[in-house]
Write a structure and sequence with these properties.
Layout (H helix, E strand, L loop, with lengths): L7 H15 L3 H18 L10 H5 L19 H11 L12 E3 L8 E2 L2 E7 L2 E4 L14
Helix pairs in contact: 1-2, 1-4, 2-4
């Protein structure tokens, strides 16, 4: 059962984001990008207050670098659509399980990102989950 509402065009949009952000990280890496996106919609805190839909999350200004590159605009493929559906249905993997931020640094992961602590790395991506009361909802959304 879906944890956020998603029409077919939303699944396609999320699938394109997963591919553009983490195709080189394989299935798990793409699922983790989906985890972070779905967490942002569900958590309703910090920089992500008011996000209610997949398009709002994907096109939030400065949220995903991939949206400014041409490869993001390639047609969604079935492989990524299946991964997008798994994310929408609430499948979560550590270290993205509660994360609201990730990025791919050229070297080591910084200990914090946007003031949030580093919780783990998967291949090239570093993941950060919120602390404090403002975003405690991210731990209760599933």
């Amino acid at each position: 059962m879906a944890v956020v509402k998603a029409r077919q065009q939303d699944i396609d949009l999320l699938a394109r984001l997963l591919r553009a952000e983490a195709e080189g990280e394989g299935i798990q890496g793409m699922l983790m990008v989906g985890n972070v996106g779905i967490n942002r919609i569900r958590a309703n805190c910090s920089d992500f207050k008011g996000l209610r839909t997949i398009p709002q999350m994907v096109y939030q200004p400065h949220a995903f670098e991939a949206t400014i590159h041409s490869y993001f605009y390639q047609k969604a493929r079935d492989k990524e659509r299946r991964l997008a559906r798994r994310s929408v249905n609430g499948e979560r993997l550590w270290p993205a399980k509660y994360s609201l931020w990730y990025f791919k640094p050229p070297g080591d992961c910084p200990s914090t990102w946007y003031g949030q602590p580093f919780v783990g790395r998967y291949k090239g991506h570093c993941f950060y989950q919120p602390t404090g009361e403002e975003c405690e909802n991210v731990y209760n959304i599933y």
